[in-house]
Each structure stands twice: as structure tokens, then as C-alpha cells.
Known about the structure:
The chain is 43% helix and 21% strand. The strands form 5 sheets. Strands 1-11-12-13-16-10-9-4 form an 8-stranded mixed β-sheet. A 3-stranded antiparallel β-sheet has the order 5-7-6. It has 2 domains: 4-107, Orthogonal Bundle (Helix Hairpins), CATH 1.10.287; 122-418, 2-Layer Sandwich (BirA Bifunctional Protein, domain 2), CATH 3.30.930. Helix 1 runs antiparallel to helix 2 (27-67), helix 2 (27-67) runs antiparallel to helix 3 and helix 4 (144-150) crosses helix 11. It has helices at 4-22, 27-67, 70-107, 144-150, 156-162, 172-191, 205-210, 236-241, 298-315, 362-367, 391-401, 415-418, and strands spanning 126-130, 154-155, 169-170, 195-197, 202-203, 223-224, 229-231, 246-249, 255-264, 283-293, 320-324, 336-344, 349-360, 369-372, 378-380, 382-390, 403-404, 407-408. The two termini are 48 Å apart. By secondary structure, the chain is α+β, with helices and mostly antiparallel strands. The structure holds one RNA strand.
Amino acid sequence: MLQIQKIRTDKDSIIKNILEVRKVDVSDQINEVYNLDLKKRDTQKHLDEMSANMNVLSSQIGEQFKKGAIEKANILKKETTVLKENIKKLRKSFEELDQSILELLYQIPNNPNELVPPGKSENDNEIIFSSSIDSLKNDSLLPHWELCKKYDLIDFELGVKVTGAGFPIYKGKGAILQRALIQFFLNEGNKIGYQELSVPHLVNESSGYGTGQLPDKEGQMYHASLDDLYLIPTAEVPITNIYRDVILEEEDLPIKHIGYTPCFRREAGSYGKDVRGLNRLHQFDKVEIVQITNPLESYQTLEDMVLYVESLIMKLDLPYRKLRLCGGDLGFTSALTYDLETYSVGQDKWLEVSSISNFETFQSNRLKLRYRDQNKSIELAHTLNGSALALPRIMASLLEINQTEGGINIPEVLRPYTGFDSI
RNA sequence: GGAGAGGUGGCAGAGUGGUAAUGCAACAGCCUGCUAAGCUGUCAACGAGCAAUCGUUGCCAGGGUUCGAAUCCCUGUCUCUCCGCCA
């Protein structure tokens, strides 16, 4: 959620930037917020004055009662009745204004960073780097779902029986390879100072609001209605919400966490070849990295995080490309996002395996995640996160590119974790 | 699932109707041969002001009673203890 202070000072440039970059016109919402805010502050001024009066009267009444001057006290009491009524009314309209502003703010997306290329769709994303894939193309290579069947690594039909489409069952070496990847990703993160967390897979409603899944995207989350808990769509939700309503000390920053969790997504509206095999699942595993930083450092941190995730892909020896998302493809809460996509040789297709974003203060404003700087003043921190990495599509790319007549070779770095060299 | 107790500042902890004691910790300033001690101050949100500062709100949340609520009433929620169940 955007900061109201910024809307007070820069509303026109925010409107202009969101329109140019995201191609979305938010002028109505922002102007309304601006006007409601003026009204709200005016209301508060009156309300405060009246309340101050009321406090004075109340304590006078108390004094009179103590003295035993009941007559005088009763006269004062009468004075309060009108005042009380007015305070009640004014408080109500103050709260209504406050609520309206909040609801509008929830609907306004983050203001994109200047690096974000303007654009409407994924076609406008900026390709920053791409491995050369021409020499890899080969029609005789199998897509991963056929490899999974051939070597009995992942059983999609069995998952349908037990749960439904999009809940595959990993078997034997398939399950071991998956576990090896998780272990590898966690260990690499630990090496460069990310503290590992093992977090709940269900979260409460407040956490859903904190990271922005609620109120808009509840359709994307599974909901355990009996206990009113949500299955997490990403580890970002429980990890970031640890810091909801927290004031950190500046020297605590940056905070770096890494966590593995399954992720649950309803993916309502997806269909066709996009959902074939491991391309899109309702439940999948992911290792997530999260950082909370000083605002001055967040963009350097974003670059570091992207480089780190790239290094993981390189260690696995997978062809990949790096994109800077354009305004139209940029997530609602993000100010700047890089996507990393590995190449699926069996499908001749790029698969998104990581999305790394700087949210600036958009999340922390909602979370009330702040820090005390050297002048003791309290400021919003910046939050960032990224996948490092999402498992199924990595698995898909990995199986496809390492297939040979005699089997599937396991990348060198994973062998200590799998205990076998090939499938 | 049943029964009971409870939720107050960074922590501990008092406060049953008159506007949040006290202790500990941390930080800042003062004092000071040194050290220790001592003294003073230090919460958050919002608003007004160039500023010093001032006002309002906040004792789990939401409602109610009252001139006035941490305190009384209602609803919700969370935690703890015992019992039951259980990896």
C-alpha cells in the first residue's frame, strides 16, 4: 500500500508514472484519497478540540463531586450532553473517512521503479541476458512428463486419484532428486548468510492482509474454513509476517531468511498446455529467500539476490534467461521485478523458475514493519523476496536437458545429495 | 472436545470508576580525580506548528453503561493450567 504522505506531496507524478509504465489509470482513486485525506485531517482537528474540552469538563465534575458540590457538578454534567453527542458523530465520520481511504489504498498498485520498462504484456519484458539455445534444439528430445513415465519418477494419475489434478506423486529417484534439490538450495543459502526458517504452512487472516494476498486474491488461496486459516501460496507469507508490527534497530538490518515450504495455489482459470506435467501445479515445493533492508540499500540487495539465484542455476548447468518485467507484467505489490527462466528443451519453451522483487515500502507500510534509524526516528523498512528456487520447473528443465539414450545424468553438484549419478 | 484462570509499556508487575504506581534492563544528558553510585529524561499512532512544543487516541479486539472506564456489562479472540484425545 502506498504511503499517504507520498500521495500528499507527489500525487501527480505517481499517477503519471503508473499510467506510463503500468498502463493503468489510477487518477480517480488517488485524487479521491487525496481529497478524503484533507477532509480527514480537518475532521481530526475538530474532534481533538472537542475531546480536549470534554476532558477538562470531566475532571472538573470529578473535583466538584469530591468537594461535595453536587449541584455544581450537575450543572456541568448538562453541558457535556451536547458535546458528547457531537463528539460521537464526528468520531463516526472520522472513522468512515479513515476506512474509505484504506480501502482505496488497497486498490492502488505500487509505483514502479524508473528501471521498469513501460509495457502492457509479457512481450514488453526486457531480456537482459539469455543463454544461446539454438544448438540445444532437438525434436527427438522427450518432454519431462514422458521421461517421468519412462523412469517412473513422478506419477500424475496417482495424484489425481488421491487428491486431484495438479497434485503429483513423486516416486523413488524422482522423490530423492526433489529432496536433493531442496537440500542443495538451502545449503547454498545458508553459506551466504541467510538464516534458515521452518515455518507454518497455514496462516491466519491478518497474515494474508500483511503481505497483500488479502483482500483481493483470496480466490488464489486454499482456505480451511473451519479454523479460518489459509494454506500458504509461498513461504513469503509466513516469513515476512514474522515482522508484522515490529520496530527493528537499524543495526539489525539487513535481515536475511531462507525457507523451504510446499506452496498451495488454486490457479483458478488456468488451462491447456500451460498446465501439462510440472508446468503448473496446485501444490509444489519452493525455497524462498526474503530480505528486510535499509531503504538506501534495497536496490543493491535486489541485484545481489538476482546474481545469487543466477549462480544456483549456473551450478545446475541449466540454460536460462533473465528478464526485467515491464509495467504490465509487474506484480501489484512490486516496484521492480526480475524473472529468471530456464529453458525446457523437451517443450522448446522458457519456464519461469524465479521471480525476485523489491517491494520498497509497499508491504512494510501495510505490515507496519519499521526500523529506528540513527536519529531515533522511525522509518519503514524495505522488503524483498525471491524464489531460490521453485522446484518443479527446475526439475522439468533438468530432466529434459540431461536425458541420454542410457538414462538421465545427475548434475555434479547434486550427486552428494542424491547418492546416485544417473537415473 | 470438557473445566478453570488470565491478556497492562522492552521485561517484570500494581492498579474494581476520577484519567496508568513501582522494579529491572537499555539509551541519552547532567554531575564526576578514576570507578561505582546519584540526578534528570526517554513509548507508539494521528493531527497542528519553521521549531521548542501542544492536542487527541491507545491497558488483546469490537460494542455497551457513565460527566468520566484498565477497572462494570456483552460479544469475539488469543495464551496458560488440568482432564480427554494424539504423532
